[in-house]
Amino acid sequence: MFLFAGLGNPGPKYAGNRHNIGFMALDAICRRHRLGPLRRRFQSMAAEGEIAGEKVIALFPETYMNESGRAVGEAMRFYKIPLDHIIVFHDELDLPPARLRIKKGGGNAGHNGLRSITAQCGNEYWRVRLGIGHPGDKAMVMPYVLGDFAKSEKGWLDALCDACADFADQLVTGRPDEFQNRAHLFMEAQGFSDPKRVGEKG
């Protein structure tokens, strides 16, 4: 069994925020693979189903970003899910918009959602890092991540979420590198491989 956790803040006020790209990617996965219906469990909205023959629980924590680990830890312990079967989708300031990277373990780069999960669960889980770019000034990070995506960003944002959904089967079949490679090729085919070009479509 696998646990897919999207990170974000609950409620309509935050729905379009850059900080909520993890929710957006997981929502695309749920739609594509028909996970659901959503119901309230583990301090989250949760959906269950199968991807590539593997049982998956998709978790949208309602604890707010900084306490994401409480929800993820509760589901992990209930199902006895090993850490390397936990895959967290989150916003990444240190990647240009439209870029995606996956890694297991490592530092949290100041991301409070990851810090909370590490504190509650341990560190050796998978992170799908979804690039949102950096505002260029540390003092602007908070308003930037809690600001909504611009209409001009919709093209690459939808494509990145589609890539996560299209290739989620690679995550549950033990091929994270293939997930990343296929996502990169998909984004390239959509015209979003060069960070300088991400605003050109959509």
Structure description:
The radius of gyration is 16 Å and the shape is globular. It is built from seven helices and seven strands, in the order βαβββαββαβαααα. It has one domain: 3-Layer(aba) Sandwich (Rossmann fold). The C terminus is likely disordered. It has a seven-stranded mixed sheet with strand order 2-3-4-1-5-7-6, sandwiched between helices. By secondary structure, it is α/β, with parallel strands linked by helices. A hairpin with a 2-residue loop joins β3 and β4. The longest helix has 14 residues. α1 crosses α5, α2 runs parallel beside α3 and α5 runs antiparallel to α7. The termini are far apart.
Classified by CATH, the class is Alpha Beta
| Annotated CATH homologous superfamily | Peptidyl-tRNA hydrolase
User: What is the number of strand segments?
Assistant: 7
Order of helices and strands: EHEEEHEEHEHHHH
Helix content: 25-40%
Query: Termini distance?
Result: 36 Å
Radius of gyration: 16 Å
Task: Please give the largest β-sheet.
Answer: 7 strands, mixed
Residue share in β-strands: 15-25%
Overall domain count? 1
CATH-derived architecture: 3-Layer(aba) Sandwich
Query: Looking at CATH, which topology would you report?
Result: Rossmann fold
Mean pLDDT: 93
Strand numbers in spatial order across the main sheet: 2-3-4-1-5-7-6
The helix count comes to 7
Question: What keywords describe this structure?
Answer:
Rossmann fold, 202 residues, disordered C terminus, globular, 7-stranded mixed sheet, alpha/beta, single chain
